[in-house]
């Protein structure tokens, strides 16, 4: 198992190629060419955008459409799974099946569940469970807005 510390060391290696089982393989230079600096910082370096600043933070849930990964275009969330959580980032209660992979995140003295795009391995945010939101799953997928692109249907 690759630990978070090893991943962080790998990410600092300039020539490292991000290869995944589903065929996404890009070098750091290629990612920098297609992402904005903020998108790169969050998706590729596991950063976090400032709360209440993202494009999709306060947008209402929509009946139709899909939120996609800005890095690879993979569908992540149906629009009707978005809800208002007032946490400062877009919140969803359920991902599209197979869209995410999760890993334990022990950074900052906490234990959290980090979520990453299953296709390109981009960091998206964290999943919080049991907070009491009135949703079908009682989960809050707290997603960095800069990682998302909305595709209306």
Descriptive report:
It catalyses: L-methionyl-[protein] + [thioredoxin]-disulfide + H2O = L-methionyl-(R)-S-oxide-[protein] + [thioredoxin]-dithiol. Its EC number is 1.8.4.12. Pfam families: SelR. Its cofactor is Zn(2+). With 153 residues, the protein is α+β, with helices and mostly antiparallel strands. It has one domain (4-151): Metal Binding Protein, Guanine Nucleotide Exchange Factor, Chain A. Helix content is 14%, strand content 30%. The protein is built from 3 helices and 11 strands. The strands form 3 sheets. The chain has a 6-stranded antiparallel β-sheet, with no helix packed on it. The chain has a 3-stranded antiparallel β-sheet with strand order 4-3-11, with no helix packed on it. Strands 1-2 form a two-stranded antiparallel sheet. Strand 3 (66-69) and strand 4 form a beta hairpin. It is globular, with a radius of gyration of 15 Å. The termini are far apart.
């Amino acid at each position: 198992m690759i630990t978070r510390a090893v991943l962080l060391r790998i990410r600092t290696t300039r020539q490292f190629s991000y290869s995944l089982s589903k065929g996404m393989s890009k070098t750091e230079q290629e990612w920098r060419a297609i992402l904005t600096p903020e998108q790169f910082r969050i998706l590729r370096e596991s950063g976090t955008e400032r709360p209440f600043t993202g494009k999709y933070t306060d947008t209402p849930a929509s009946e139709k459409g899909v939120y996609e990964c800005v890095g690879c275009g993979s569908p992540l969330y149906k629009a009707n799974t978005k809800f208002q959580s007032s946490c400062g980032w877009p919140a969803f209660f359920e991902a599209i099946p197979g869209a995410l992979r999760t890993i334990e995140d022990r950074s900052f003295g906490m234990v959290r569940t980090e979520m990453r795009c299953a296709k390109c391995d981009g960091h998206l945010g964290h999943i919080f469970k049991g907070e009491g939101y009135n949703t079908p799953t009682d989960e809050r997928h707290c997603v960095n807005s800069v990682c998302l692109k909305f595709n209306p249907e």
